[in-house]
Every structure is written in structure tokens, then in C-alpha cells.
Amino acid sequence: MDIAQLKMFQTVVECGTMAKASMQLHCVPSNITTRIKQLEEELGAPLFYREGKSLNLTPSGEIFLNYCHKILALCDEAKRSIHPDAPPSGPLKIGAIESSATTRLPNLLAKYHQRFPEVSIQIITGTWKQLLVDISQHKLDGAIVAGNIEFPMLNKLSIYQEEMVLIASHSLGEIHNQEDLIGKEIFMWTEGCPYRAALEEWLKLKNISLPITSITSYATIIGCVSAGSGVSLVPKSIYEQYKNLTNIRGYKFEHLAFMQNQFFWHKNVSNHKARDMFLDLIKSEFCL
After folding, report:
1. 3-state class of 103 per DSSP?
2. Which domain holds residue 56?
3. What is the rounded CA–CA span in Å between residue 263 and residue 132?
4. Which residues contact 219 (CB under 8 A, 6 or more apart)?
5. Domain final residue pick, 82, 106, 128
């Protein structure tokens, strides 16, 4: 077993087929097939279910993939530690919830790229839980998520408070309190979303429990609300993006005022200059 085999295995998983992996690795598919079979023989277990050209991980493959991520992350860390004075370079994988990715990150990324052009940044959006799991498994170098969260093995930094706004179409009339939502459709992200949890807690203050339609896109949520179909709770930054383009109105309430946003990174990953420079930039932009 060697590092090249691990990289081949990881690339095949990411690409889905030997042919696509061979294009990314700049080698012939037969070479990858042979090296993967040798790896399976050494491990004594199949890593893929092979159905035609389709490849799906076996349970053993799922387990081995997690170790692959950790081993290759440690190898990258070892390379970085050998050149402590070198400028930041190489890949930097940053996760973010959609509201941060579309409103807070663009200006931050522009400044980072201007300072450190040798760093190749990849932005991944997702739910807060999946993003933090990905950091713990070394699939991400850091992530911005909302909510006051603790997660094993991860450091965190409070970076900014996101102002929250309840939005509704003008056609629904004025909204003064929780009771005004009774009978109206509510559109929110899936369960686990801190904004959804905040809205549910606000309704519970008046012993109100309403069904919520799960939508994993702010553009779709805004579209539904603008059409007069219902209401939603969104960050003010999202509301500001759409308020002049759609038929929506924003409402502010005391118990729906702010949501803390945090930046998380792995406690056991040191000497990651690209990530550390990103963290320094976050501090200078949001933590003054």
C-alpha cells in the first residue's frame, strides 16, 4: 500500500468511474484498475461493487475511505511543515451555509485571492451538521456555520451576528405576532437548520406549532414567499438581496433578532498556512 494507491482510490470515489479518474490523474484506466485490485488484495476485502462501468463503495470501502482522507490530510500537513517560510499555496477547502456563501464570502474570497493567488480555494455549501462532520473527517479545512454549536475535535471562533428577518408577501397583510402566522404556509430549510429552530422556538412562546415545508434553497424560498404562498425566517443579508426584486416585506421581532455565526476548524491540523491566513483574514474583517 502506498500514497499513490490511496490517491487513486480517493479520486475514483470522487469521479465515480475509472475512466474519469484516469483523465484527472493523467494515466490509463487499466493502470488504475490494476492498482485498485492490488489494494483490495492487500486489504483482503473488495472496496467497490462493480456493475458495468458504475462503481459503488462497499461497506469496507466506506470505512477505508475515511482512513484515506485522514492519511492524505496528514501527508499534506507533513509537506507543509517542511516549508514553514513558503507563502500559502495548494488547495483550501472551505465550507459555508448558503446564506454566508452568497452574502459574506464573496468579498472575503476576493481579498484572500488577491493576497494569496497560489492558493486554490474550493467552496462547499451544506447544512451546518454535514459541514462540521466533513471538517472532523478532514474533507474540509474549515467552515462557517450559524448557531451556538459545540463539536468534538473542532476549534471555533465567533465571527459575526446575523440579523434575522421574518419575510412575507405584501398580499398576506401585516404580521404583528406569532398568531398572525396561523393558517399560513411556512417555508424553511430542513430540520437541524438553526434558523428553523429559532422560528420554532419563537412560535412555542405562544404554544403554537405549525407545519413547515422544507426547502433547501433560499432562491426557492424567496420565490414561494414572493408569490404569496407563505412566510419564512431568513438572514437580513438574504432579504436585502431580494427585497427590491420581489414582492416581499421584512418584519423584525425581539426574540428573532440575531443568530451567531462561527468559523470552525480541526484542532489536530496544524501548520496549514493557507487555512491560517484565511482565519487571520476572517478575524480582521469580522472580529474587530
Report:
1. helix
2. 3-82
3. 10
4. none
5. 82
